[in-house]
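Protein details
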Amino acid sequence: MDSTVRKSQYEGGTRTRGMMRFSAPGRPLVTVVTVVLNRVTDLERTVASVRNQSYDNVEYIVIDGGSIDGTVELLSKLGASIDYWVSEQDNGIAAAFNKGIVLARGELIGLLNAGDVYETGAVKKVVDAFVSSPSMDVICGGIRLTEGNSPAILCFSEPARLEKETSVYHPTVFVRRSAYERHGPFDESYRFAMDYELLLRFKQRGSAFVALPEVLAEMKLEGASVQHWRQGLEEVRRARKHYFSSADVAARHLLALLLNLGAGGLKRLGMGGLYRAYWKIRSMRATIEERKRPPK
């Protein structure tokens, strides 16, 4: 083959050399999947945050959508820190998530996009909750939202509000493998709100959620859902229409949806102050709700 023609697929990682990880009594295997496309400057810190976890039985998979910005070269360099990585064109974020889920061997599966990072002890906290709550399907927690040099905003996942808004933050979410087997993977017809549709589907079908009061991850206030806020808003509306037949339910929460996925539009209109104010209100509300919980 002509050496100047780029291969359609690259792959690497320790699994390609026969090195596998397994669950052990009291030490369930956790798989973390990172999807990336042309974000080489953000990827290395994401990889480091996974490999610096205090819990060490973590399988790490990176799904690259065919980057041309040096991501493949970085993945090759970091191969010893990654169980498996593959670089090839795919059909979008949801398809990349599903590819990673199929490849995952862990009992718990977390999804961490390039640019997002875990807190150092995040996976250990999730595993402790998993071991002590054998009936749970989804574990989530708090997130630190950052934007440039502005002060970070802390928000905590609230599964009880999923019917009203996107109240669970996907970088903090870990899902039991059997929940994907029972309820299905991401719906690939959703391009930007696929995480909301999936979590709403799980909740509607009776999956048990556990919300931890600790911050598990950090995420920048950017990305596809903000850049494509109009499409994201329409997809949230579509998901809610599918699961809720009453039109007045959607109307009652329209403002929350507009503010939530319409945040990118507020920024473009020069209303960045309102944009940050919305996240601060959500942060304050979650903090108040957390204080209402009885002590353990």
About this structure: Residues 64 and 87 are 4 Å apart (CA to CA).
